[in-house]
Every structure is written in structure tokens, then in C-alpha cells.
Amino acid sequence: MMKNSVPQHSGKTNTSSHEASQEIIDSITSWMETFVEKPHPSFGNMPPCPYARQFRMQNKVKIIETRSAIWDECKKQMLNWSDEWEAVIMASTRTNISHGLLSEKVQRLNKHFRTSDLVALEDHPDSVETIDDVKMNHGSLVLVVIQRLKRLNEFSQNLQKTKYYKRWSQENLDDVVSWRFKD
Fold this sequence. Notes:
By secondary structure, the protein is an alpha+beta fold. The protein has six helices and six strands.
């Protein structure tokens, strides 16, 4: 079992809707509370994900732990998507999965499910993502976040009207945002 190095969370996350061990739920929720939801100067003094706290507090984020190939579980979730959720976070402790293979499989899912208005975003501990020298990764879990593409793009367009993207490189914008708007 993975040792949890992330502090215990203090928010009101409803764990009954999750399909994950308490350790995984605590790890992801703590990362959200201590990083994802905290304002930072690199994001125009907004949180790295300005909508995460609201959706977590409304129990609109579901965490699912997978012990099989994470991309297969993502496909199942995408095939059976429920708009009850703003985001479904697929999580795996199987960090021996190559980040190249994960990225390739997620790209295929995105190509297939684009017409279903769904997008998957991967996070692998061996593929460190930095924006303005800020490490964005969870760090110890393989994650794939599934969301409605149109909603995510609307949120990105709203953020473009703020200082949120001011310190992002063109490479960051292309890797995280721009590709989602292309046909």
C-alpha cells in the first residue's frame, strides 16, 4: 500500500460517492486543498484550478481508484458518463506505467470521445509539468481527470479575460489549453 506523504485534508469532502480507498481520497483531497485550490501569483493570484474548490464542496468531484489499466477504466467512465459530476478523477498507485504510454492512451481516448464532449487530462509522477516554475503534478499517483470538454473550454475562455494565463509560456498554453479548442 502506498505511504501517504500528503497531510490529512480538513474540508467537507463527501467520501461516500467515491470509489477509492480512504488513503487515495485523503491524498487527492489534501493535494487539492493545499495546492490546487490555493491562490498563487503564477496564476494571477488565483488558484491553479479556480473552480476545483467550488465543485469539491458541492460534491461534484468523484474519485475512483483503479487497480487495472487506468485508460481502460477511463474508457468505461467516459462510455457511462454522468453529468452528476463536474470531474471524475481516476487514480492509480501503479506508477510503473510509462508516462509515454499513458499519454498515448489518453490522446486516443480524447480523439475518440471528443464528439461525446468529453476530455481526459493525465498526470504522471514521472512527467513533471511546470508552469512558471510551479510544479503542477500530484506527485505520487497516476491521475486522469475526465470532464465535459465544452465546460472546461468555457472555463478557460473566462480565465483568458483575467490575469490567470499571463505568466504561462506558449508551450504551457499549447500543452494544457490550446489543443482542446482544435477540431
